């Protein structure tokens, strides 16, 4: 058992950390691993190349986005997921929905203490296997797009939510509630004043042709355009993709659900229930194909935004092994 720790100093919970964080983590690891800091995603290829031959566990000291980039760099260097090391998220971001799903508790320091103790006796911690989405696509420049992820907001309210969420300097649970509350208040005000604009930016639909398991979604305008590999707990505020709760199931959402119905479904989203709307295809499925119309898509995958995508095909990806330090 050998640990490779990748530190993202820009992750929310790592910002402003006093002292030399990497030195402290190296002290916690001792001879059972090594620590590498990234200043950008461009540093990852070299780090993963050095760690891949010997690391049994890759520890992502950051949030969901840091873990996303780490897994996808591993995909670039090793095509066979069975040869991948076990990944360990450390609750270093603003949402940490992957760590929540795996039921990983504590911060990086405590997690590394537990892992180094396990490595000392070569007794690996228990693991869970998480389903993923695999996304193949094309860009407006004619290049191919390929990612592995856990949650996709290709358009609609889930995608535009992050535009508002990222405007705040202190993202987290309270910020999520604030964004939702403001969107509801703005919509209510627009209805009372009878202004032509009824929804504002958050409820602006995305125009696309969508096919789920061979059946085209009737509407070409989508207020919700999402996919999840498992049920996601967003900071303890919203619980989405309940139809992916069972292993092997994917949850797809597409359609022109009106803003008023979306707001009416907030209790269901808080409780982790499926959304009810005759105009929304909210199903468990195998494949979703999204073709952009009018303008390219800017999908968000695991909290990371990508741009200039004209076509996406979403289906089940490989299982990813996640260690759960006791």
Summarize the structure.
The chain has 326 residues and is of the alpha+beta class. It is built from 9 helices and 21 strands.
Structure, explained:
Helices cover 29% and strands 30% of the residues. The strands form five sheets. Strands 6, 7, 9, 10, 11, 17 and 20 form a seven-stranded antiparallel β-sheet that branches. 40% of the residues are buried. The protein contains nine helices and 21 strands. Helix 2 (44-51) crosses helix 3. The chain is an alpha+beta fold and 326 residues long. The chain is globular, with a radius of gyration of 20 Å.
Largest sheet: 7 strands, antiparallel
Number of helices: 9
Total count of strands: 21
Mean pLDDT: 90
Proportion in β-strands? 25-35%
Which outline best applies? globular
Radius of gyration over all CA atoms, rounded: 20 Å
- C-alpha termini separation: 16 Å
> Low-confidence runs (pLDDT<50, min 5 residues)?
none
Q: Approximately how much helix is present in the residues?
A: 25-40%
| Structural category | alpha+beta
Order of secondary-structure elements: EHEHEHEHHEEEEHHEEEEEEEHHEEEEEE
């Amino acid at each position: 058992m050998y640990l490779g720790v990748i530190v993202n100093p820009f992750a929310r919970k790592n910002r402003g950390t006093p002292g030399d964080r990497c030195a402290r983590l190296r002290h916690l690891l001792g001879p059972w691993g090594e620590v590498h800091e990234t200043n950008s995603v461009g540093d990852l290829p070299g780090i993963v190349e050095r760690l891949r031959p010997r690391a049994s566990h890759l520890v992502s000291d950051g949030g969901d986005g840091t873990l996303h980039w780490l897994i996808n760099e591993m995909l670039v260097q090793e095509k066979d997921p069975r040869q991948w090391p076990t990944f360990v998220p450390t609750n270093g971001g603003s949402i940490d929905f992957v760590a929540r799903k795996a039921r990983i508790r504590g911060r990086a320091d405590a997690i590394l203490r537990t892992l180094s103790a396990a490595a000392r006796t070569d007794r690996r911690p228990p693991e869970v296997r998480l389903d993923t989405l695999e996304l193949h696509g094309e860009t407006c420049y004619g290049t191919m797009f390929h990612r592995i992820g856990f949650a996709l907001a290709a358009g609609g309210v889930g995608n535009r939510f992050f535009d508002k969420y990222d405007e705040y300097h202190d993202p987290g649970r309270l910020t999520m509630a604030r964004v939702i509350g403001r969107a509801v208040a703005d919509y209510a005000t627009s209805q009372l004043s009878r202004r032509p604009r009824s929804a504002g930016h958050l409820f602006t639909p995305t125009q696309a042709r969508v096919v789920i398991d061979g059946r085209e979604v009737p509407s070409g305008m989508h207020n919700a355009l999402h996919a999840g590999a498992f049920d996601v707990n967003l900071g303890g505020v919203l619980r989405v993709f309940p139809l992916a709760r069972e292993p092997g199931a994917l949850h797809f959402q597409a359609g022109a659900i009106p803003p008023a119905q979306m707001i009416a479904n907030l209790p269901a989203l808080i409780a982790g229930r499926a959304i009810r709307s005759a105009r929304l295809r909210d199903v468990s499925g195998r494949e979703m194909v999204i073709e952009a119309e009018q303008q390219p898509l800017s999908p968000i995958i695991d909290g990371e935004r990508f741009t200039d995508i004209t076509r996406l095909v979403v289906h089940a990806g490989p299982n990813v092994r996640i260690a759960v330090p006791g």
